[in-house]
Amino acid sequence: MNQPIYLALDFPTWAVTENFLMINQLQGVPVKVGMELFYHEGPSIIEKLKENNHPIFLDLKLHDIPTTVKRAMQNIASLEVDLVNVHALGGSKMIEYAKEGLLSTNGSKQTKLIAVTILTSMEQTMMNHDLNIEGNVLEQTGRLAYLSKQHGADGVVCSAHESTSIKEKCGQDFLTVTPGIRLENSSKDDQKRVATPKFAREQKADYLVIGRSITRAKNPKAAYQQALRELKTK
Ligand code: C5P
Prior knowledge:
Blueprint: E1 5-8, H1 14-23, E2 31-34, H2 35-41, H3 44-51, E3 56-62, H4 66-77, E4 83-87, H5 92-103, E5 112-116, H6 124-129, H7 137-150, E6 155-157, H8 160-170, E7 175-178, H9 197-202, E8 207-210, H10 212-215, H11 220-232
Parallel strand pairs: 1-2, 1-8, 2-3, 3-4, 4-5, 5-6, 6-7, 7-8
Helix pairs in contact: 4-5, 7-8
The structure holds cytidine-5'-monophosphate.
Cytidine-5'-monophosphate is lined by residues 8, 10, 34, 59, 116, 119-120, 157, 179-181, 189, 191, 209-213.
């Protein structure tokens, strides 16, 4: 793929999404479909996006007992998206079963399994107190990335701040997908571990996820172009 930015389609319906993509001339760009849109539209949203040639990251963040996740992944595999994810905190067996579920269909496209480490909306205090996970975010994302890799994941979701260190631990081919991206002068919203596109590229992120910096901009088309420019800035 030439374009490493997945645009987060955090919209309520296909009608709103289609209109947004059309008026901003973003047809065909890589997109991320999350729970909001998928739970409203169901799997048909994937077919609609494919008709318009969008590469797709299906961000459903599965986290359940291993057998349930495996069976859900068997269904997801038939959608033939590029990337799908689970929470690494679901543990080693759940990650293994997720991969088995994805591998169990004979489709032409092999969907990559990505594990969410620590959400980019969390910082260390929240991780220590709410999740009762000791240590700092860098250690924990590294540990969860290594666990994910050992059990069949192709990469992780992490913040740009952890990407380089994860690749040192897990290998340069292990994918890092980084949300929490903010264009220069954009609001952080509810995200904590944010970074600019340029910083993410410098930290060797394979794919960036960008939502509100583009979708809530006064001129989303211009914001998308700005993201591409910032990504290329030396
Ligand atoms: O609007 P913003 O750029 O913050 O959107 C980030 C998107 O990435 C949201 O759709 C969110 O669900 C998703 N995401 C995230 N952190 C993760 C995994 C996914 O922010 N760890």
